[in-house]
Amino acid sequence: MSAAVTAPPCHNSRPSPLNPNSRASGTPSIAGKPNAVSTSTTRRHLANLDRLLVKPPPLPLPVQHRRSPPAAASPPGDGDGEAATPDGDARSGRGGLLNALNLSTLLPFTRKPAVDEMSPRSLAYMQRLLTLSPRLSPKGSIAGEWRRYHGGDGAWEGLLDPLDHNLRRELLRYGDFVQAAYTAFHSMPSAADAAAASSNGQHRTLVLPDRSYRPTRSLFASSSLAIPPWAARRSQAPGWLTQRTSFVGYVAVCDNEREVARMGRRDIAIVLRGTATCPEWAENLRAGLVPLSDDANADDAKVAKGFLSLYKTPGDHVPSLSSAIVEEVKRLVALYEGEELSITIVGHSLGASLAVLAADELAACLAADTNHRRPAPPPIAVVSFGGPKTGNRAFAERLQRDRGVNVLRVVNAGDVVTRVPAPIASRREGHVHAGGAELRLHSGDSPCLRPDAGPACCHDLEAYLHLLDGFTGPGRPFRADASRSVARLLAYQRPSVKRAYVERARVLGFEPASPRTATANGACADGQYGYLASPT
């Protein structure tokens, strides 16, 4: 066995500049401490390596908290942050990827934010927005005031300014229910396939984000218009785009007893999506007002002809939307007779107008049944996201005064759909919104969306839910601890998201789907990327 050979020391070699304990040639250390020049050189080399390896920078504290105690570094109510390491590096652990979203080292605090920049005020609080499964805040009990949260006792008075956090949570859940309807439709858009899959009353691809609710029946809307066969043959669009009948929503009921106890009642939800097919788009353009019944007088309630057509027209193999809703709600009310019940009808865009029509008819039908069997019908409320004007003033007054239905209209100030159709010649017969309350959002309040976001983004349902998640009240700043994911927003409305978020998402390996990919995967929805940009 050969003996080990020891290399002689090389007195001419220079110490590595990356070793902070080494001395620079000819420069002694002071009091046994590392040389200041060597330490500076080390830091410079490490910084260069970080840039070459695209290493996320350390997460600094926001400017407004640097003079505060360490406990004040997190925004109130934010329980998702991780404890910082002693050297201030919070990249380790499950938050490492998300901490890279902080752009404070790239955007100097002294520079005024431009259109494509994120607000420095929100950088440290918006760092986890690309996560697909944000941790939700605990649900508060509303059992004692559920009628107030449902629109009774003053139509949400005192809950909107500032926005009550429990009401925000309820509205976001109903909005996610509508997103589930969009997803179910685009995953199985063929009416024939959807009807066959719904033979047991439930759409096969429908998955609710809140498992406390159980879908009980799929709903279909049929147009009285039909695409001419020659036009359908010449069209390059898929067959479902021109079909007369389509899956439009569903009925669900809360069957989780713990959730029933938290809400103070058992809730029946009727969920309706917006425009997705050519016949539905054509019906939106039929804005002329017509009576709700054939024997109505000239001064009676009237609604837009196209909305009424979609609501009342039966399909070839399915009943009308009107019949299906009334039949299923009556069945559920009878099934849970003796319990405290509520009916919530929620819709986006076209679905919001259909929700108003359904509320008017349900209130009348249940009141008629009450006269014979029950002491009082369940209260009915409508939640409208980006809904257009549905009928005339007589219809709006009848809905609120005679039917006892209040409508909470969630409106984006930049959404043109909420302002159509315009009033016609006679002021008496002009289109108006249903009575209730309005919750007005602004795209410019979001730290993620560009201030010049286009009409499609302003009408997009996911943009509505993103703004609602951060809304605290008129004129108030965006909620610092808003935690709704922006992943879907990047997929649907990427051109309207600030470039800083898009670029940082790309660096992190999150590449949002392109418009074509989103459509091919069944992800498009009313006002989002897809074959049609619907006015409602």
Automatic annotation (TrEMBL):
Chief location bin: plastid
Biased amino acid composition, Polar residues: 13-28
Organism superkingdom: Eukaryota
Residues spanning the signal sequence: none
An annotated GO BP: lipid catabolic process
UniProt domain Fungal lipase-type: residue ranges: 270-422
Protein's UniProt name: Fungal lipase-type domain-containing protein
